[in-house]
Amino acid sequence: xxxxxxxxxxxxxxxxxxxxxxxxxxxxxxxxxxxxxxxxxxxxxxxxxxxxxxxxxxxxxxxxxxxxxxxxxxxxxxxxxxxxxxxxxxxxxxxxxxxxxxxxxxxxxxxxxxxxxxxxxxxxxxxxxxxxxxxxxxxxxxxxxxxxxxxxxxxxxxxxxxxxxxxxxxxxxxxxxxxxx
Length: 181
Prior knowledge:
Blueprint: H1 2-6, H2 10-21, E1 33-35, E2 37-42, E3 46-49, H3 55-62, E4 63-65, H4 70-77, E5 83-87, H5 90-100, E6 106-111, H6 113-135, H7 147-155, H8 157-160
Antiparallel strand pairs: 1-4, 2-3, 2-6, 5-6
Helix pairs in contact: 4-6
């Protein structure tokens, strides 16, 4: 944040502020969405999977935005729980109860490995940006930047607008773990 502020790189500064204090709903980058499994609470059996029969609706419900500051995501990742839950608000819960014809509470369950993916993406973006600054001879001895370094930072589009690379669409990705082939 200090480097972006001192170099007056507003896009990167804005991105870091969002990471530090949390995102507004319409500004969340794609890497901050987690995908989970919709489950319903059955008093006799515990949490049971829900199959809606409508892929679009299911994808909408089970794709959860992680708006919290990166520090909160880090704390979540460091909990002992392997599975995290996101409870439905009252309106969504009622809608699901009507659709499923089963009046209970609903939640999306997801692995905390997805929290690590968010943390890792943020770390890697900062590392890549730092290396890119150095590659462009923007060193900042003792966190002080010369006028030449500031000018290079503003004139070098890839350094100045680097944050734009964080908001690309990622679709149709498959991740498989625990296989032997």
